[in-house]
Amino acid sequence: MQDFRANPSLIVSTSHVGAERLPVVCIDDFAVDPALLIAIAAESVFIDVGSRYPGVRAPAPQAYTNALLSATAAIIEETFGAAPEEDLDLCAFSMVTTAPEKLRPIQRIPHFDGPDLRRIAFLHYLCAPHHGGTSFYRHRATGLAEITPECVEQYRSTVVDELKADSPVQAYVVDHTRFFERLYGVEAAFNRLIIYRGNALHSGDISARTVLSEDPRQGRLTINGFGFLRSTSH
Fold it and tell me: What DSSP assignment string belongs to 179-193?
């Protein structure tokens, strides 16, 4: 029988990033059977999703999504002020596979998953630490570390102008740049889960040590989930 449960006694640590104190939850040894997830990924069909994600994805089992939300709902409510909705917009095995020299300019800077204040993101590392963790950033010109509906157009306009004026180096962003300040980083660790607001500027720490393989047993295998907090309005 497949066991997608989270460990019953989760050890949770929460960091608060920047002056905004953006919460980043970190849970180690999250899944009871992470080897099961790798085995399922190895049998999955990955596709290029055609978005800004520089790699390939395959759907994660719904039973995993259910277990993830069940195990983290109380933690999310305590940390972010509301419980998560009952399902996720996306929950997928993900692997970064794009070579640095093939990155588009927009893929060479930090990104955000959407400006909605209720958006949350899950990232479950199923790979070795050398494949790289995740860092959070502040945009120097606007001073923004999170992108809200009120500032999203200003931010996008400024970034477009910056990319036209000085295209970033042909590499993944892993540290301070001319236009972005690195605020905080979470190292990758096998079976580590992190949860953060989707409107925070962030990027994977993809370096020369990252194996850009489509083989889930060799490359930077993660499970990425995107969902929303429940509305607190009545």
Answer: SEEEEEEE---TTEE
What's the sign of the alpha-carbon dihedral 9, 85, 52, 79? negative
* 75 vs 62: CA distance, rounded Å: 20
Neighbours of 68 (CB within 10 A): 25
> pLDDT (tens digit, 9 = 90+) per residue, 10-49?
999 999 999 999 999 999 999 999 999 999 999 999 999 8
Neighbours of 19 (CB within 10 A): 10
Element housing 41 (H / E): helix 34-42
Residue identified by tokens 């001319």 is: 178
Based on its alpha-carbon atoms, the radius of gyration of the chain, rounded to whole angstroms, reads 17
pTM tops 0.85, yes or no: yes
Give the DSSP H or E segment for 79: helix 62-80
Taken as a whole, the chain contains a residue count of 234
**203-to-62, 110, 136, 137, 207 alpha-carbon distances in Å:** 26, 5, 7, 8, 12
Q: Does the domain formed by 12-228 have CATH 2.60.120.620?
A: yes
- Is residue 146 within 8 A of residue 20, CB to CB? The reply is yes
Question: How far apart are alpha carbons 171 and 156 in whole angstroms?
Answer: 21
In degrees to the nearest 10, what's the CA dihedral of 8, 13, 17, 19? Answer: 120
Domain map (residue ranges) of the chain: 12-228
